[in-house]
């Protein structure tokens, strides 16, 4: 038994050393400070509660051109049809140019006659000027020659304008598409007689599509320019289209007292002008208690280890990751249904470098 004591003594002596080594490692791990966070801070606000109200709207082309005739004549549009894709500068139809050509010839003949009259009147004035000065020609007779010359000059100017108009009308005999797009409506057929101002063809661009709907004044704050809006199109309710608000028309409809909101839709071959859709209209309610839903920026939501949450800023200016349950998006914000209370401060934007327990940097926006 006495020979067993030395090993036990050695074990007892080594145990404090082992504990001391473990303690120093624990203290080192505790002293590792996460990098300071230099990101903006925001406050959780009462969420916009969806009361079921929706606003209906329609998809429209941002660029639409209705072409009208600027010359008279017989239309030639044998190959034109509704739904035809067209290119900018493409000739869609022509107006029989014979009448336009005849008008140019008449105007040119009128100009020639006016020039001849001017030449004759100018010659008379130049010839009789010495006679009028010497008194050999009566003053009234010479005055009449001068008036005739003035009228001839005006006649030339009028004839030149008529010729320019006729030449311009001749250039209008080709109906050209001003945009890349699709023929959505044609009001003429091959062989029709048209007059200046007659509607011919309507062309819509497919470059940019808008969703236009009317919103009440109380909801306009949630449709700020640049914010995102989910649009539910008929037949695609399971696939909401996220558009971006371009702006609000600053004039309400006098009957409905609603304002038109324009939302730019993303490029999608399945979306076409004329489609019907809806946008949910949120109305902000009094939800100040801790059990109510709150609204936070979508950029504030982070994923850590498969959990969705936000970084809450404590009184000690340290951030703590907190798991939350999310609801529906509302523009560029998202509803938090549980895990966060109104008035709590959180990071308005996160990135992968943010660590739990990190302290706010001195220059961080608070």
UniProtKB/TrEMBL annotation:
SUPFAM superfamilies membership: HlyD-like secretion proteins
Record flagged with keyword Membrane: no
Gene3D superfamilies (UniProt xref): 2.40.30.170, 2.40.420.20, 2.40.50.100, Helix hairpin bin (1.10.287.470)
Annotated GO CC locations: efflux pump complex
All residue ranges annotated as the CusB-like beta-barrel domain in the record: 213-282
Domain Multidrug resistance protein MdtA-like C-terminal permuted SH3: 293-346
Keywords: Plasmid, Signal
Family to which the UniProt record says this protein belongs: Belongs to the membrane fusion protein (MFP) (TC 8.A.1) family.
NCBIfam families: RND_mfp (TIGR01730)
UniProt-recorded name of the protein: RND family efflux transporter MFP subunit
Protein species of origin: Sphingopyxis fribergensis
